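Async update (no meeting this week)

Hi team, since we skipped the sync, here's where things stand on the single-chain job. The sequence we agreed to prioritize is pasted below, unchanged from the tracker. I ran it this morning and attached the output directly underneath so nobody has to dig for it. Comments welcome in thread, and please keep replies under the output.
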Amino acid sequence: MWKRDQKLTAGSQFLASKTVLSTWKEAMPGDDEAGSEQHAAKAQQEASEPMSEEMLRNAYHLSRLRSSSVEIREKGSERLKEELAKAQRELKLKDEECEKLSKVREQLEQELEELTASLFEEAHKMVREANTKQATAEKQLREAQGKIDMLLAEVTALKTLVITSTPSSPNRELHPQLQSPSKVVFKKGHSRNKSLSSAIVTAATQNTQLKPVSKDGREIDLILFEEFQSWKEDPTLDKACPFLERIYQEDISPCLSFAKHELTEAVQAAVENNTLSIEPAAAQALPVVKASAIECGGPKKCALSGLSRTCKHRIKLGDSGNYFYISPSCRSRITAVCNFFTYIRYIQQGLVRQDVEQMYWEVMKLRKEMSNAKLGYYTEES
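Output:
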């Protein structure tokens, strides 16, 4: 009975495997219709013939192989899908990174352009400043060379005057007593670059002895002398010192008082700063122009007094290109004040080698000239 049950179990397994085998064979493609018929006939023949155990085992193994191949295929498909999704995510990340790098590159390019523009602008600015400084330095150099030439000319003139004076051939500029009484010492007037008359006289009269007071008929005013001595100890051009304050009140201000007040103030400032120049007027009349609302006058009209006078000279204030025509009387007044300032500047610079009394009388003589000029006295040479 046990054998019978075993045979029934084997038969059922054989039928199941045969059914699976026939199904697999039907699913397999054939070469052609004849092959299909052969397979069908063969399948019928096998179905009619009883199968052995070996065939059953082969069919079983084949079934397991097919199921494992299906599983492998499904797993491979799932793995490929995962790798595809992973690759897509990586590509997305790469795209985002590329986009960020592109933005960074554009920002760097913009900053580089702005930096280049600012560098060029700064370079141009530095070049302009360098050119301006160079022009200023060249101008200062020319001015310094002009001043040096002026000082050298003054020193040469002083040396010439001192050396060329001998007992057999005295220099009349060094000895005023040899000149005619009508000859005025300061006949050349004042010019910023050519006013040497006062310095020449004071330097040339170093060895000239002071005449006795009784013979000249003059007497020292103690108050004025004390003020001059105090100023001589510490020479200054400050108007507040007693010495200059008195001279300003009594001589300078009245001498430089003209009808045109605005131009008068400018002239006084130029005289104080030693920036006023006087030169002969040109023969040909120049057109009348306006300069800072001040009339420049003309060859027939004085710019300071406003009167119709023959103007043989003209003045220039500082570096201005405007010239003002002045009458002989105005020129004499300006020249007298300029001579005074020239002398006290030489005292301040230590160029006058005289004793205090000689310098005092020279100052009194210059004050006398200012007094005469402010009263209207002038020579025809002026």
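Quick observations from my side:
The radius of gyration is 62 Å.
Confidence is low (pLDDT under 50) at residues 27-34, 165-169, 180-215, 283-293.
Reply here if anything looks off.
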